[in-house]
Amino acid sequence: MAAVAEAQDVATRSVAMMFQSGVEEAAKTLNEFPCKTASLDCAMCFVKSVQCLLTFDFDVMDRADAFIKDVEHRCSASIKSAHSDEDSMMLRIITADCELLRALLAFARQTLANYVRGGMHLRSASKTYTSIITELKKRSASNKRVEAACSMGFGAVNVAVSLLPEKVMGLLKLVGFRGNRRQGLESLEVAARSSDMRAPFSMLLLLAYNVVTRPVLGIDVSDGMNSAIQAGTGILELSKSVCPDAALFTYFYGRVEFLKKDVDKALEFFSEAATACSHQPEMHQLCQYEIAYIKIVSLKWSEASDIFLSLCRSSPWSPAMYAFFSSITLAATGAYDESNAKLESVPELMKAKSTALEKLVRHKVSTFTAKRLTEQSARVELLVMAYMSNYINWCGPELCEDIVDYLDEHENDISSDVYFYSCSSLVRGAALIQLEEADRAEVHLRNVLTHAQTCVQTTDSHVPAHATLLLANVYKMRGETDKARNALEKTKSLYTDYELESQVQTKVKACLEALS
Asked: Do 475 and 484 meet the contact criterion of CB atoms below 8 Å apart?
């Protein structure tokens, strides 16, 4: 029993260590412990999952999924021989945790098939968590350990289900499966404040929801971003007691500053986190990626190029994507020969399994190989990628004004190319919405739709889809609810089968919920 208790302590410390010292240190600690237990295996599942979500590398995901699946099977087989009811419940929770983690890995692949697969994993996990909660309620004495362990999974399942694309939700509703976001968030709060090893992971999920998902999808933002900022700040303060110097949580301080539209302060936190985690390649890459995008929306093309070239040389993950961004930023600085060489290298760096963003990059490579980029067209491409990655929304009024002024000034340089002209109009529309200039934004967004037929005939139908979505925001700003709803329905039905469609459709779902 002493060995089991020690293993539990190592598992708890390792999950916290993952945020403090990195994935490799946490995995090393778990692997070196002489006794193998279910709690250690469960901790390793969390470590591998976080590594996947930081890198978005499908090979890493495949290996992690296989490991988690094996842990699930072994724990399931051990339930009947458990020494006590509590041990049996903990093993059942671990099997449910494995289903939850496999769902998150499936969602990271961002395809409809994987959303459905992930939804079924969530359904299986939900049945186990709900069953255990029901059993606990029937007992006269509470069991704090089991309750804390179950809270994370129950909360995560409910929040995740509530965020799924409408097509997937329709399928899950047919089998009687729904999520309660509010109840889920409350359960995650309980788990985050517990002493269970899942507490740091619960904090991560709450931070991701409040300072990334909510602002990106426009969920519960009637007070602007105040409640999201307050919730994120509260969790970050709580994290100091568990992971006082964790680079990942420093990174989230940067995301909170983004919500405040203080780009300089966000840059300080990202830079601090990047320096602190120089020995943690997954975290270092994430921070550098954020810094590069800040340089793009700040119109600092050379500095962005230096970062992407560095990532292209050093990162073992997403080499094709970083080669693509290196090519575009090089073109934006006028280094055409180097840019062309980088662009030609992208196809051979593409992996058989690609993220949704990498698939979009694949389409763009063929287009940009056929028609060479100029400085101005490359800069427009970088800004539209920044918009699609949600950086225009949070770069603040000064930078939004700079972006609009810059694109206005160079409009004639790209006016003969329908795609780049449409992208320039899209970005200006997005920036003007942030500046609360609804009329000017509408003009630019309607320019996009004027050229929509040309875009729809190519792989670039995501451009008019985003323009229609943004028009809904314009109408909402004016209080024209019916027009906003119609624009959202049009976004959902008129534009299909384009890259990153699931991202747009999830935003549409959240916007429709906000209007109802």
From this structure: yes
Residue 13 covered by a domain? yes
Instruction: Identify whether residues 383 and 262 lie together within a single domain.
Output: no
Dmax over CA atoms of the chain, in Å, equals 75
Show the domain range for 95.
Answer: 2-269
Q: How far is 259 from 449, CA to CA, in rounded Å? A: 29
Give buried/exposed letters for 264-282 (b at 16+ CB in 10 A, else e): eebbebbbbbbebbeebbb
Distance CA 506, CA 490 (A): 14
198, HSE (Cβ side, Cα atoms, 13 Å): 30
Same domain membership, residue 414 and residue 265: no
**Residue 11 resides in a domain:** yes
Please give the pLDDT value at position 222. Answer: 66
The reply to whether 210 and 96 lie within a common domain is yes
330 located within any domain: no
Q: What is the 3-state secondary structure (H, E, C) of 76-103?
A: HHHHHHCCCHHHHHHHHHHHHHHHHHHH
pLDDT level of residue 453 (50, 70, 90 thresholds): low
User: What is the distance between the alpha carbons of residues 2 and 415, in angstroms, rounded to a whole number?
Assistant: 73
Residues 257 and 400 in one domain: no
Distance of CA 37 to the CA centre of its chain: 32
DSSP H helical ranges for 163-280: 166-174, 181-192, 199-208, 214-217, 226-239, 247-259, 263-276
Residue 147's identity, in one-letter code, is: E
- pLDDT tens-digit series, residues 99-132: 999 999 999 887 888 888 999 999 999 999 999 9
Number of domains making up the chain: 2
DSSP 81: G
230, part of any domain = yes
Q: What is the CATH number of the domain that holds 411?
A: 1.25.40
424 vs 422: CA distance, rounded Å: 5
Q: Residue range 173-195: average pLDDT? A: 89
Q: Which residues of 300-320 are buried (b: 16+ CB within 10 A; e: fewer)?
A: ebebbbbbbbebbeebebbbb
Is there a contact between 397 and 435 (Cβ–Cβ < 8 Å)? Answer: yes
Distance CA 384, CA 288 (A): 19
Nearest-Å Rg of the Cα atoms of the chain is: 23
- Could you say which of 269, 298, 326 is where a domain stops? 269
213 Cα distance to chain centroid: 7
For residues 253 and 379, state if they share a domain.
no
pLDDT in tens, 213-244: 888 887 776 666 889 999 999 999 999 988 88
Nearest alpha carbon to residue 72 among 106, 105, 42: 42
Final residue of a domain: which of 269, 303, 323? 269
How many CB atoms neighbour CB 341 within 10 A? Answer: 14
Domain co-membership, 122 together with 259? yes
